[in-house]
Structure formats: C-alpha cells, structure tokens
Amino acid sequence: MLLTAADWQAVWLTLKLATLVTMLLLLIGTPLAWWLARTRSVWRGPVSALVALPLVLPPTVLGFYLLLALGPNGPLGQLTQTLGLGLLPFSFSGLVLASLLYSLPFVVQPVQNAIEAMGERPLEVAATLGAGPWDRFFTVVLPQAKPGLLTAAVLGFAHTVGEFGVVLMIGGNIPGETRVISVQIYDHVEALSYAQAHSLSLMMLLFSFVVLLLMYSLNRHSRLNFSMSRP
Amino acid sequence: MTDLHLNLDLRRGDFRLQLNTALAGQGVTAVFGPSGCGKTTLLRCIAGLEQGGEIRLGEELWSSARQSLPAHQRPLALVFQDAGLLRHLNVQGNLDYGVKRARKRGLTPLPAEQARQVLELLDLLPLLQRPVQRLSGGEQQRVALARALLINPRLLLLDEPLSALDSARKQEVLPYLRRLHQVYQGPILYVSHALEEVVQLADQLLVLEKGTLKDQGRLGDVLARLSLGDETGVVLEGTVAAQETDGLARLALTADGTAAGSAELLLSAPQALVGDHLRARVLARDVSISLSRADDSSILNILPVRVESLSQSGASVLLNLRLPDGELLRARLTQRSVTQLGLQTGMSVWAQVKSVALAG
What we know:
The complex is a heterodimer.
Chain A: H1 5-38, H2 44-56, H3 59-70, H4 75-82, H5 92-118, H6 121-128, H7 133-144, H8 146-161, H9 165-170, H10 181-190, H11 194-218
Helix pairs in contact in A: 1-5, 1-8, 2-5, 5-8, 6-7, 8-11, 10-11
Chain B: E1 4-12, E2 15-23, E3 28-32, H1 39-47, E4 54-57, E5 60-63, E6 76-79, H2 91-100, H3 112-121, H4 137-150, E7 155-159, H5 167-178, E8 188-192, H6 195-201, E9 204-209, E10 212-218, H7 219-225, E11 233-243, E12 248-254, E13 260-268, E14 277-283, E15 287-290, E16 301-313, E17 316-322, E18 328-334, H8 335-341, E19 348-353, E20 357-358
Parallel strand pairs in B: 3-8, 3-9, 6-7, 7-8
Antiparallel strand pairs in B: 1-2, 1-4, 4-5, 9-10, 11-12, 11-14, 12-13, 14-20, 15-19, 16-17, 16-19, 17-18
C-alpha cells in the first residue's frame, strides 16, 4: 500500500488546509459562540440559523452560491478584486474561505453549549473578585469551556479534512492548490485505480476513527451535541 | 466611620425593591426577611451585579441614576449562597484569584501573617491543594469566606452563606462566622431568612418585607418590635459572671450591650468561661407573669419587671416588660390571664422565664 507523490501532495495540502481552518475557526467561532450563548438580541435566532445552515445544506448548494458570490461578477468577487486579492475561486484561499463557512457550526455549537452550561455564576463570582470583562473571558470562560473548545477543534479539523462537495464546486482539482485527499480519491476511482483509492480511503477511515476515539476518551463527560433546540 | 447609603428603586417583573437608608460602617448588619422580600436583590445591587438607584460608601459614589461603577471595580467581597468557587481552580487558586486583582481596585490584601491567621481560623491550611470538587459543602463555604477576607474588602457581603447547607454543616460553619470579627473589622452585611443565624451574628438588623424597609436598628430593639408569631421574643446580652457547679452559667445582663446591670439570668452554657460575652434568646411564649415573687416555683429565672404596654396579638395579648436596667422582655399571655391578674400599664410584676436559649 504505497502512496504516490501526488497522493502525498494531497495529504499535505489537506493537513495544511484543515490546520489553518481550525485555527481561524477557533478565533472566529469562540467570540461568536460567546455572543450566541449570552445575547438577548433579536438577531440571535437568524444568526444561529445561518451558522447551522451547513449542517443541513448539500455542500454543492453552499459551494454553488460561494462560486457565484466570489466570481468576477459576484459582490465578494468584486470586493476581492478591488482589494487587489484577485479572484478566490479555484485557489487555496478560496478553499479556506469555503471551509470556514462549511465547518463553522461544528466549532460554534460545542463552544456555545459549553458556555451555556457554565452559566452566569462563575462570571459574577469573578467580577466580585475584581476581574474585568476581558480578564473574565480569559481566566474563567476559556478554562471552563476547555472541553467544549477541544471538541470544537477536533470536529472542525476532522470535518474540514472530510469535505468534498464544496471543494469540488469552488476549488476544482488543481494539484498542490486545491486537490485535497477526498478529491484525489475521487480521481483514483474515476481512473479505476482502486488500489490507490483504497490506500487513501483506509488512511482517512483510520484517521477519523482515531480522532473520534481520542476525543471521546479525553472528554468522557461531554457529549457531541448539535441540538438546535433552546430552553 | 464610612456608612453605606442606599437609595434604591428597581423593578424586576412585578417585584419592586424600594428603599432609602444608611447602614452602619462597622459590625454585622443582618438583612432579614422571608424569601422573595428582595434581600438578595439588595445585595446584588450593592455588589454591582444589578443596577437601580444610588449607592454610596462614605464619600465614594458607586452608583447613581446616571452612572454605575462596574462590579469588578467596587472594593467589596461577596460570598454567594452556593459558595461560588471557580471549579477550574483548586483551593489555593481560588484564594489567589481575588488577591491578585485586589490592588487594581484600590484594596490592600492582607499581609502574609494575617492571611495565614485567616486560613488558620477557617481551618483551611490542610485543604489548600484540594480541587474544589472534592470539598464538602461546609468546606466550600469556608473557602469562599477566606477568599473574601484575604482581599481585605471595605465591605463584606454574605448572601445566605448557610442556607445551602444541611443543619449539621450549618452548625459546623456558624462558629467560624461568629469568629469573623477576630480577622475582619470592616462592615459586614449578612442576608438571611433564618432568625437563628441573625440572632447569633448580627449587631444591627434591617427587616425587609415585599421590597420595602419594614424596620431597622439595633438587633435587640428591632427584634423586640418585630412580630414573628410563635418566634416573637427578645435577645438579651450579658457577661458570664460565674459558672455554677451544676453546669449553669450566671449571666449578668448588660443593658444596651455596655454597662453591667443588676439583673441576672441562669442558663445552660457548659462551654462558656467567666467573662465571656453571651447572647440569650427569650421567647415571649416562654415568659409568664406573677404578681408576687413565687419562691415555690421550679422556674429559676424570676425577674422584677414593669409592664410597659399591652397589645392584642391574635387570640393572645403581647406584653412589653421593662427590666430595672432598661432591657426589654416580652410575654405572651391569654386574655383570661391578663384579666385575672388585672394587668395594666405601669404595674410592677414578676416575670418567670421558663427557658432561655443560648444564642452565640
């Protein structure tokens, strides 16, 4: 079971993409989760629904609209062009952007659940002990939401590694730029090189299993919870 | 002395808290009242966790209609009903959390030696490295108390610190609360719905009812005015003059908590030493009246009193009785007894006290 140079290229590209996306998602998703967990704004419902859309939408639909929006005539495409960034579709940057949207709920929801489960009390306690809002966020919220953050990182990473439909729509199949593992497997199957497809597929299978196993054993008490219902 | 001035008016749904008063800048002031009377809301307002009205500590304005000092900048400490320990830190971590942030809000945490004294007083030295999940309810409350004391706050707020504990744990923590004054001289605001705790701990009493101030003043005075049904009574303070061989202590009552008077009470206080300051609680239902001193009675405490007032209270009559040195005693009698004895304001009679409970 040997991987070709092209296979390895796809593996590295996938890991690079997933790592970058996970880090960005933790940075964006944590404040968003914090806001969703605590706001009483009328926007909470619409924002929650938007964040959760990728859970139910076929990846092709998401990819299709992203392609339109980021294309030369789309609003985002025109923006990126005026900013001198060029066009994002069929580039690594475009893939990163698409993956951010695609994996967002997998990061936001575990963090949001953890913050909601923590409740108001630890924050009030920290405030009466002299901790300001930022201090409370870093010394109480983050440590207490750690299991949720860990779950979020693992799910965000694994889900990005596993994406296919969105990649195909927005990234195409450019070696070293947008050809990730799932696309490489698809190519092997198309070319009837089942042995090659098998090597990569088995690798993905084992990777996913080990990741989930690790997460469940590290995080025995928390559940993966994607429930949309609110008290 | 820096008094705490409050002028609050806030609504939460159909509940309204409205009060305008000043609280003493030293000693323990108990905020007493039934559940839902606004005690906890009052405390949360003072701590800055809720907004509504004017709060001033001495010359320092903490909150007004226009602006409010955020909770983390107010130089106070709050002990929550459920202790509120930060669960991701161990005992030491919890204690340090407040100390590290004290100077930023103008407080000087206790120096090492005094800090150690607090930990010793609260028996926490063996628990410092313990995760907070492995503490009993009583231990958690002691850690919360130490965490508050170590930052040396200008005002200490205690929100029913015993109410989440069962009665055995309560008895475990109460003595620590009684000793607080050894390590903390600032003002304490103690919220409670349990009269038993209030009687043991408070110097001043503030009674809330449905969000408004019902009564306020020295514990003994307010308690004497308060109608608590079966629990109606007074608190008498005194110094142990002698410890008798049969286990009873002779308590010389001190009127107004200062000069020793002439009246004495016998009560069971086996642990008390001569010179100890004690509080005794005498319920109105445990006091009966006789016109002459009965020497053939089993009752030990028979005190000369003057009838100050009689008031109808339900099916019975509540009498306010004045001891020679000015302390108040209350007695609950039936209308028939009052008529039979011909009791009237100004009469000198004997009060027979059936039982006296030690209260701290």
